[in-house]
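Late entry, evening session. Most of the bench is empty. Finally got around to the prediction I had been postponing all week. Sequence below, unchanged from the version circulated by S.P.
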Amino acid sequence: MPGKFEVYQEKAQEYRFRLKTATGEVVAVSEAHDSMEACRRAIEAVRKHAPYAKLEDSAVAAAPAS
């Protein structure tokens, strides 16, 4: 069973989506969008670009203790 996108209204006229795994774990939450249509466009952008996205680790490793 695949994961799913859930669209929800958070505040008056603010829409977000959650990406959930097949087991219901939330793995991503979107920024706020001012319309349902904008939220759906953001979902489509994730669907389009995520399969090709590369992982860029921008975390800075801690320097070894002296």
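Two things to note before I forget:
The first strand starts at residue 4 and ends at 9.
The beta strands are 4-9, 15-20, 26-29.
Will write this up properly tomorrow.
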